[in-house]
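Supplementary material to the annual report.
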Amino acid sequence: MTAPKDKMAGVQYARLALLPDGFRDTLAPAAEHEASVVRALVDVFQTYGYARVSPPLVEYEDSLIAGPGAAKTKAMFRLMDPDTQRVMAIRTDMTVQASRLAATRLADAPRPLRLAYAGSCLRVKGSQIRPARQFFQAGFELIGSTSLEAEVEALVLAVESLHAVGINELTVDLTLAPIIGVLAEQFKLEGDARDAAVGALDAKDIGALDLFDGAVRETFAGLISAAGTAAHALPRLEALSLKGHAGKLTARLARLVDAIQTRLPDVGITVDPCETHGFEYKTGIGFALFSRSARGELGRGGRYLVSAPDGSTEEAVGFSVYLDVLMAALPAPAQTDLVYVPYEAGHAAAAKLRSEGWRAIQGLTEEADPLKEARRLGCTHVLAGDKVVSV
Amino acid sequence: MAAPEKLVLALPKGRILDEVMPLVRAAGIEPEAAFDDPKSRQLEFATNVPGLSIIRVRAFDAATFVAFGAAHMGVVGNDVLTEFNYADLYSPLDLKIGHCRLSLAMPVEEADDDPRAHSHIRVATKYPNLTRAYFAGLGVQAECIKLNGAMELAPSLGLSKRIVDLVSTGGTLKANGLKEVSVIADVSSRLVVNRPAFKTRPAALSHWIERFREAVGGAAA
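Predicted assembly:
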């Protein structure tokens, strides 16, 4: 490490080194660790037959705010295409891009369509809890199936991919984001009354429901107090005996809980019927994954609609993780072995070690003390004679 | 059996603490003796419940500790909750203590005017986000000057025309030649829990929410 020596050098140093808020350099070994975690996640997605796609970083604004993108319009950086004079936007979520592919280029591909992706996204502002403005997203989308098995597959695959990178003690939280809107319609709540109900449910504030009466109050209060473990929530939701679409949603939720308990017996299940934060574009059951080893939510997904150019829609389920959150939950990687091969040992010696799976640094000049040089370069081993010796 | 996983309860210092402690005790939590010793410099206190500790921090900081998951539960006024609007905070329970209101105030001698007539107004407050949102709702752009106390001085010294602050009796306003013009929010203290903690440890957190719910019910009866 060389520290800036005087004040002028300090100013110059800051000019080169300071990054804007929410952006960071990732150095070794963290950069390699992140890349290998992404690789491991996508590998698991591919074992289930999800085909990797790689859409561009920038699109015309119109295509990025279509369908599920509508909830993210305020988060996107925009720039003008000097050529066409049209506004372009930098992606802030790859789900939107996967749905665009499904609705356009892959419209005639057989359904259900399975797509996987991984790439960097940008947003104009981080949150206080998650300040990153550039982050890596990895995920998959299962498009064109209305079956409950689609949600089950998405959850099983999400859990399996997180296990594969070393996250354990997982909990899945199931949400029913559309239910508030459905009930507001059933109770014919409009304008301010609707806003007040949504606000109270968002904040889980039973007190704020006092301005409603009878069935409205009871149903909404019931939804709020249902939040908790599946064993706590399901009987309470059932007791509300919701009608119409709301009833169908809760019945589907109960069947999904059954299926997960069978397929993923080690995963805890909680239910939060009135959670809407970040689930705005979900049209059915949404889910978020938590782990005791992580401070925040690891990833989320759920059912939504892909909108086609002709105005029709298609059912889809997806899941994605953000690497900034995931990496914070993983222990630091073990140090990788690195061999120092003295210049005089020759290229063939280094090549042989590499072919055996070692990472080998070849000295570029002759050094009096190869052991000392190996230590200086941060190597774990040195080639002495024909033996690899630990430093 | 393994030792129970650590659980941290964040309590606000000052006025609210005296009101909240009877509820904490009624919920079955008894902090160690140093908690009530004014000379103690300790910040984290053990309790009679194994694994549960209490931290005593500023009211605004209690929300921050819980939002980041450094504390798992806390007591926070809904003024602070709306000001920060943390997505990772649940407030499942109104503790029905610490009642006051967040109000807009102006000098007594000034004539009342319709705030909507301004395009811009300068306000001194501890709650810039709430204040900006309140005035934005009236179509007025509020320039907020963030102060951490003694807001009441701002109008008389020409720092701002209006202030937004907590009011309980109105005594401080009156003593400084100010009058309350409108109530922006009614405030009371809430039990808050960290969202990820509530998802990964639902049994432990629900247990304490229920104990506090009973304590609030008992206090009301």
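The mean pLDDT of chain A is 91.
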